[in-house]
Structure formats: structure tokens, C-alpha cells
Amino acid sequence: MLNIDRDLGRFRDIVKGRVRRELRKYMSSGELVGRKGKELVSIPLPQIGLPRLRYGENKSGVGQGEGEEGEGAGEGQKAGDAAGEHMLEVEISMDELAEILGEELELPRIEPKGQREAAADKNKYTGISVTGPESLRHNKRTYRQALKRSIAAGIYDPDKPIIVPIKEDKRYRTYEVQKEPRSAAVLIYMMDVSGSMGKEQKEIVRSEAFWIDAWLQHNYDDVETRFIIHDATAREVDRDTFFRTRESGGTLISSAYKLCMEIIEAEYPASEWNIYPFHFSDGDNWSQSDTRTCVDLLKTRMIPVANQFSYAQVDSQYGSGQFIKDLQEAFKEDDAVVLSRIPNRDAIMDSIKELLGRGR
Question: Around 236, how many Cα atoms within 13 Å sit in the side-chain half-sphere?
């Protein structure tokens, strides 16, 4: 059993090494996305052979014995000259995947700035009492008290040191219920779903969100995720709707920022939550007037409460790409604002490093 465990450990190390080497490919192909379970991710790894166990003696060996070449394969069958392709799926936990991501991209660990009280209670023992349930009896204190009583009463015999506690000797632990502080983060994803954002752009956003989730969940005890889609208006949706919806209207980015701030101000005080708004767009906005409104919302309301505001612009043949230029001009010296441009799938890994590389 120890040998099997050791071999399994070596095999998992090989798998992790393969994931590290092929990380950019997995990010760009999106093979992991949509295969995410509660704790594990299935990663298809071609060309890794499984160990085989054979029982009994193998006296003859492979290919030995009588018969002409080709016999035994079936009448009329010929062996192929190409190697068969095998696909093995190996499960890696989200924590393991996040560790690989952090190591390969050299991401700094995040220092949470806010903590909230956990829903689960934590019992903290605070003292000793003469009353309490038997489940909380402190045996050492009880027998110490019984020994003191026996010595004081003159009934203790050191040659026959038998101590029998009575009711008055019993001592019990006391405790109080405390809320355990835990680091908590909220991720608010915003995405332009107007006509210029096509299926390819949404797949890129989907892949980026998967890796962002993996890293932030690795850094925080509790993570909540909210989703906002917008064209000329904004609304909150579930995860599936977020990645599937496509509209045909114009784009008014400020509508998403306003809704984002309504959610933050109503439910996520900055003293308890680490706040991460992420906005994905192809760079189109209705007007420069609305862009000025967006900049004002960011400066006066969102950035003061957020750990970091992240904007990732996905190139589209229909998008102007102007919005990232406006944000670069407005926030060129603000470390709390991170901007990234994603020209294609191959740039996903570089974009993730840009968005998460400041450790905020």
C-alpha cells in the first residue's frame, strides 16, 4: 500500500508538472471552464500512460511462440502504423490549481484588508466552574480538588493512593460563544452584452473569470460572486445568464457602475468585505459624456471602497476600443485601478497576470 501511495504521489507530481508547462494552453483553449465541480477540476491530459498491473507469471513474453506475423489478429485485419491516442482525465483540487497559477505567474499573496464575522459560532473556553454538564468536566482539576480534600480530611493514604471524587470535588470548563473573524471577498463581474460583444469575446471573459475565481478563493476564507450585464441599461443576473446573454442595443457603461455601487453600498461594507469589481467590454461607450460619468463614479464612489477596480478590454472587430484609453488617461497614477487589453485567447494568461499581479 505504501508503494502504491508513493507511486500515486509521483504520478500526481507528473500531472502538476504537465499542467504548469501547458498552463497557457489551458487558459487559451478553455478546456477547464465548464468542468468546475465544487472542489475539483477535471483536466484532460493526453499522452500520459496509466500504470498497468499484471498478475501471475509471464513466461512466454509478448510476441513469442509459433505462428506467422499477423496471425491471431483476425482474418483480414492489419495492424495500423500510427500510435493510438489516449486521453486521461486527472482531478486536481481548486487549491492546487490556484497554487500552480500563483507560482507560474509569480502572483503575490493578497493581504485581506477587511474581515467579517462568520456565520458559524466558535466556542472559546474561558474558565472553571463548580457546576456544569458532565461532557465539560475537567478531570485533572476534579482529581486535584479531591486530593486536596482527602489530605485536608486526613483520609489520604500514600501507600494506597485511591482518590474517589465526590460531587463537591467536580470542576467543569466554562466557555462563551464567539463569532470567528474570517476574511471575506465579493467579486462583482460586469460585462457589456451589446451586439458588438460576440461569442468569442464572451468565451474569453468566461475563461478569465474562472482563473480569477480560483485565485481569489485561494486567498480568502469566504468568497461571494455577483454578475451584472449591461448594454444601454444594466441588470443583475445569475452566472449562466451572464455568459450566455447577447443584446443588440447600444452601450451605456455608467448603468453598470451605478448598479454595482447600489449592490456594494447595500450589502458589502468595506470594513468587513474585500471588494473586487471586474468590468469586461470591447471599449465602446455611448458618448464621451457617459465616459466622464463613469470616471466620476469610479473616483468618488467605487475606488474608495474597493481593493481594486479591474477593467479588461476584449478586442472586437465591431468595438472602437476607446474606453481603455480614456481610463488610462484618467487613472494613470492610481494603483487601485488595473487595466488590461486582451487581443485574443493567447493573451488570457498575460491579462490574468496584469489583473492579479498587484496583490491588492
Answer: 11
Q: Phi, psi at residue 212, to the nearest 5°?
A: -65, -45
Check if the beta carbon of residue 42 is closer than 8 Å to that of residue 90: yes
Q: How confident is the model at residue 224 (pLDDT cuts 50, 70, 90)?
A: very high
Please tell me the distance from the alpha carbon of residue 233 to that of residue 257, in angstroms, as a whole number: 11
Q: Work out the angle between the directed axes of helices 199-219 and 348-356 (0-180°, nearest 10).
A: 40
Mean pLDDT of all residues belonging to the chain:
81
Q: Is 286 left (phi over 0), alpha (psi -120 to 50) or beta?
A: alpha
**Alpha carbon 207 to chain centroid distance?**
13
Contact by Cβ (8 Å): 337, 331: yes
- Tell me the three cell numbers of residue 332: 494613470
Tell me the C-alpha distance between 180 and 222, whole Å.
12
Beta bridge partners of 175: 125
Express each pLDDT in 340-353 by its tens digit. 999 999 999 999 99
What is the CA angle 210-214-215, rounded to 5? 120
Find, among 235, 255, 256, 259, the residue nearest to 245 by Cα.
235
Cα angle for residues 237, 212, 275 (degrees, 5° grid): 70
